[in-house]
């Protein structure tokens, strides 16, 4: 219970816990391994080789670091991410294991190779450095941005607990077995963490990297020139140069503090065992503080902001050096030095690194990473070199400890000055960014949050409000709105006369009326007469917040119940309710009822108002809107009933889903989900018998409403059953083919393809809840990819058992042998059984297809001719028409439903040049002759399966030629243009398919012309 409460306090959601359960042990175990490694090699180097040589190994490390970075970058660009991360873990484990074996050999043989310890230091330092990068890279790759904000504190806490455990282990083991035994435990902990590490890569990372970036080669070719240009710009920009200076000086001061701490500690504890035990105590305390600080780090960062945080960190650095300098030669030096070392370590690695990122978030998105890597590369090498130089002042130049420590204090003061300069440069850069509008999205939002925390924000905002750029002024208004301070009200009221409606609207959104007087209220009421209805609506909404002047506000708002635009009326109704004006309620209800009766756009706004205010008394009126011809009205009515949890309408909505347009289908899913727990029982009652389109909506809604345990209990068996049903329906195509009904077999195959999309949509919705949504999405996209190799990789990832193993197997079975099911061999008995069974199927199209097959069979047996064209006959014909080639069976059915068969005598004029045309024709038999003007010369002949008149009938253009039915007669399907336009509006997929066909026709015409000219 305590853990659950703590996770809730941090903000962890239920869907995060699966990932936390797998990833947190990795950080804990690797955190132990890292600190055992660090404590071990630091103790062994300082005791067996000498802390006076630290400057030299740091100098060597500074030389190695750029080569290491280049090698790591080169390898990372040539290996897939999962393979790279596994290989790096193996390399690190191998290095630590070989070093542990070497130390064991030294212990057993008694031989001591002095030059081995610099090698131990450099290789172990490489492991510590790369292990940190590797684990955090994995965590960032696996977690979407919002999830990362929730789970990263838990991962950090896991690593901190690992550090505490490592400190305790170091104390116990070093006293009994020695510092080398501490190091030898590190590979064992890495091995223990490898199981979850490998599993996390397989389950989470592999699916996310299924489809590699195709343009990597081209990007690599341009990388060199871009990097060199960025390198020059870093030294030309005071802003970036200051960032590099801070990022260089801060670790250099840490290395100086570390050198002082290790050297002085070794003086107090010359024995290796005692030194290792004390180092273990410091490690335990250090990570205990890290864990405690982690609980408040987010709040501290939000309170200070990254720019002020750096100045605060620099001040603590200075205080630490001053404290150490003041206690030199005293008995308490070891305590002040240990405290200074711990604070500097914590602030550098837990606070300074994220704060340093503020310098780069204001740069253009496409250049940000490049500048970051260049700056970090320069700072890493420079920091180590500068740190080694500072250490050398004592180790090589012989300066006293007092001079060295006070040099560190002076350096810390310089760091404070740099941080303050960086803060001012950051503000200046932020203002430029705001003015130029170079940032978008979350990064700009975070930058704005930082911006409003700065002391100079008021002066800068005043400047921006008078800026000539409308976008800069609009952003300034947004900033003022985020501040939420009523003191800006006089400035905002000046926008009442601004010619830009966008700025007037933004000014109203930024206003706060907590301290507004009556005169101010009157000036705001003037916005109610604005020419722009959005401005009037926002003014009504704003007046609804002036509760201290409620009577006066009600007076102004009530007038807007008669406004000409329904959005303004809707906002007025909501404002009157917000002010609690009960005498106005009846007038509001009268307006709502009148607008609902009018239907159309006014009803849309009223449905939203009813939902927001919870006016259940209007539910009967809203139900009537479900039969409205306007799809927007129907969608808003469904959404309203979902918000009001009107579960009684569920059966009606389920019935209408089978023929609902795509947008209405999605709205219904959302409405079911908004109904909450009350919708679960009725949805479960109907789901098993629903057609697949309605089944899809129901399962997707239930996957949102049910918890994980009930999903596994109820939805997994349900979706597995649907997958089995789908395989059976697929076999209908094989049965019809065996019975000689090739056309119907093709329709059955088309329909089963459509049903598969619905079933898989429901299955994937369930899998999203049982696994990581981003991982499931990546696997799904991979299995649907056009590239065969990507599809195979997706199927392999699915076979790993992501989500639920049973459902994953069912999906895998559906995806692997789908095409073969439609062409399977079938006996006559099997064919008859299959057709008979499917005649009572839950899907209306499959029932229609099997009924048609049985009817054809009876007609043949009784030697009776069939009627000219039934519904499926039209669909079969339209399927072969190139103009409708891209349509689904369901869409073909809609077109067939408005198509009328006509037999037209020869010589009848179908359309006249320069005149409107209201219908398109699809030629079945015969020919249409085209002539131009009064000229009787035939310029073209259109034959079977050709569609004419589509442009003039759909878009209202005039006919560009004369069309006449040729001898002996013309047989066609005639489609009314208005009916087709409405159909396209409801089902955009039909319009997209026809558009593609038109493009294909134009392309063929261009090829023909080019061929003739050539």
From TrEMBL:
PROSITE patterns: CNMP_BINDING_3. The chain crosses the membrane at residues 20-41, 53-75, 87-109, 115-139, 151-169, 238-257, 277-296, 308-326, 332-352, 373-393, 399-422. The keyword Transit peptide does not apply. Gene3D superfamilies: Jelly Rolls (2.60.120.10), Leucine-rich Repeat Variant (1.25.10.10). It comes from the Bacteria. Pfam families: cNMP_binding (PF00027), HEAT_2 (PF13646), TLC (PF03219). The keyword Nucleotide-binding applies. It comes from Paenibacillus methanolicus. It is found in: Membrane. One of its GO terms (cellular component) is membrane. Its main location: membrane. This is ADP,ATP carrier protein. Belongs to the ADP/ATP translocase tlc family. GO terms for molecular function: ATP binding; ATP:ADP antiporter activity.
